[in-house]
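Bumping with the actual sequence this time:
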Amino acid sequence: MASAVETAIRSVVTKGVTSLAKLNRTLQNKDRVHPFLTGLHAPVKEELTLTDLKVTGTIPAELNGRYVRNGPNPFNPDPRGHHWFIGDGMVHGVRLKDGKALWYRNRYIRSQDLEEKGGPKAAPGPRRGRRDLVNTNIIQHNGKTLAIVEAGSFPAELDENLETIAYTDFGGTLQVPFSAHPHEDPLTGELNAIVYDGMVQNTVWHVVVSKEGKVTRQEPISVQDGPSIHECSITRNYVLVFDLPVTFSMKALIAGQQFPYSWNPQHQARVGLLPRTGSADQIVWCEVDPCYVFHVANSYEREDGVVICDMSVHETMFAGGPDGPNGTPLGMERWLIDPVSRKVIRQTLDSAPQEFHRPDERFFGQPYRYAWSLGLPGPDSAFVGEAPIYRYDIQTGERQAHDFGPGKVPGEFVFVPRGDDAPEGEGWIMGYVVDKPSQTTDLVILDASDLSKPTIASVHIPHRIPPGFHGNWLPDA
């Protein structure tokens, strides 16, 4: 534990670096056209409640719940030092019930930082210092709707109408940050996450939240350089730790960048197999060629003990500029991770550029067959653009694609099973699709088992929803 003197020195150094970063930020061009603050990414200015929604097609009567997506929507945008990942959080949701679209709502996550900028009053609840930006994902756990982010803030709990109730540390049981990508084990109901703190460069943690909503594990794992770990995955026995070459950059911080992470070719890329109930000294580290992973489709253990993990992979990340994600997408890969030889074999399943893989979550951490993903456009687009949705049959290798047509920009699509006991992959996928010419958005529902079929239903929203990050179908209890 740091002594009082060490703590005081660190505090002074931190204040000095922060002051220098702010100064350098003011020297940047405040009038530059920022790619993640303009065009598709321009923030919306109002919180709306719309109840007269037009629908094309027929909404399946089984869909009773809310589709909600979280993403950045800067309240008072300033291009100086801005990065797509640090905009104020805003959720966009559509309520479906008995074959009808009852409402659309968009609401800011009520952070203290937002209130200080002149936004809505902050919600109550515990904070981790002043860090309470929540802009990346939204889940439902233990009957609660939780907006979440990595590297800093506690989750924010939302009510049925997407208003922020309060920030939560799971009843005082969470002492570290949380993750944008916890994975629920469908066999136990537990959430598993690998979390990191932007202010700590030598430790990440394996956090487990019980199905009752209490943190039962916060296992520290030693690392170097402060890696940005966006995603994890699980198998029957392991949690996967992706320690890859995107790390904290003091140079970027001092230069005024508000997301101070960059590609670090000197950082050894590796993936760790941590026993889910074991200690960090039992982790099996396996080196891998340099690359970066945002999102996993699924992972499981083969009968011979080899861990299989399917995912979207990028050759580099944050090596081409400070504004947002960039790099060369390598498509969908399968990693065969051998805990005995400590070797990783990388296989390309599909070289088509893509991201935001989603499986049938009822089979997460287990052998599975189907996955869906979002195609990525060319390098001139700000990460998202006109691109198809893909469906993969892992067993046969078949790939289907659904193209929305010219001027249509989809985001992440999520799978919703037809029922709790439906066969794997039988149900729907849904997500937002922006129409660039009209600056409107549709919530589109497709047949998950056959993307060649026409759209089942489109709920029309009369404005553009900026490309966000992650959404989920939150079914009624």
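The tokens above came from a reply further down the thread. The longest strand covers residues 329-338.
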